[in-house]
Amino acid sequence: MLKSQDLDSLRVLISRAKRWDAFFGVLGIFALMIGLLTFMALFVDMAIRGIPRIDYEFLTSFPSRRAEGAGILSAWVGTTLVMIVTAIVAVPMGVAAGVYLEEYAPKNWMTDIIEINITNLAGVPSIVYGLLALGLFVYHFGFGQSILSAGLTLALLILPVVIVATRESIRAIPQMIREGAYACGATTWQTVRDHIVPYSSAGILTGVIIGMARAIGETAPIITIGALTFIAFLPTPPFAGDPPVGMFDWLFAPFTVMPIQMFNWTSRPEAAFEVNAAAAGFILVLMTLLMNGAAIWLRYRLRKNINW
């Protein structure tokens, strides 16, 4: 049995640990509130300045040298098309790479090097991806300053995020799921297809949300590959050309995106252009929230339909 002196020492240690827990809890809440309040202040200021400028004409007009008649039609269309290419390329490739590394790849020094490089690539500045894409997609492959080059560039940018999120989600699946499937005679592919990927889909979609939210606001790599800052026409509509090649003419069209349009307006001295930039920023936030909301809804539906 513990002596009274030992019990007193134990109570002192527990009391001290509780005080430290309370201190770090308060410190964490304080840090969270600083970030949240800063974001809310900036967002509210942008909304107050930009919402009165948003109307049907603003959404359906091309950029103009006159602030009163300028719109974001080419910018939001270009952003939408680039995000479609990014999602089509990054999501399947990132999920497949994560599944391979976690379920198929042998555990050796080569796999360790690949894992370290993937983790490091997630922290590489975006301008580096822009320079890589300029030499690879624009000049070497000859895609030019097009929607396809932009989509592939942003896909490379978010690919490490999707891979890491996929691997972490797969690791969270209990080992007994795999053992039960193998005991019933399932192959590795059947186990991955019918159990691992469906059960980890919610976590995978979380990584996709984070990656796409980063990609939609990137400017540096898009400027590096030569996106236009002023464009008064729309790309060819998807699948509108003569089949089979003409259906993909839109991939090689010039483009601009919302962050570049905002940068162009904020660089002008007139105050009216700053109002336009605030309105475009508010629309960009709404597009991001809409995209994330759709992914969150899909994640909820997938999680609800899973029976463990």
What does this structure look like?
There is one protein chain. The protein has two domains: about 1-55; about 55-305, MetI-like (MetI-like fold, Orthogonal Bundle), CATH 1.10.3720. The mean pLDDT is about 85. It is mainly α and about 300 residues long. It contains eleven helices and no strands.
Short description:
The protein is mainly alpha-helical.
Q: Top keywords for this entry?
A:
globular, 11 helices, single chain, MetI-like fold, mainly alpha
Gross morphology is: globular
Low-confidence stretches: none
SS class: mainly alpha
Helix content: over 70%
CATH superfamily of the largest domain: MetI-like
CATH topology of the largest domain: MetI-like fold
Number of domains: 2
N-to-C CA distance: 45 Å
The overall strand count is: 0
Order of helices and strands: HHHHHHHHHHH
How would you sum up the major sheet? Answer: none
Taking Cα atoms only, what radius of gyration do you get, to the nearest Å? Answer: 25 Å
Quick check: average pLDDT?
A: 85
SS field, number of helical segments: 11
Portion of residues in beta strands equals under 5%
Gross CATH architecture of the largest domain: Orthogonal Bundle
Supply the CATH class of the largest domain: Mainly Alpha
Secondary structure blueprint with pairings:
Elements (H helix, E strand, L loop, with lengths): L3 H47 L5 H5 L12 H32 L4 H13 L4 H15 L6 H25 L3 H9 L4 H29 L3 H5 L33 H9 L4 H35 L3
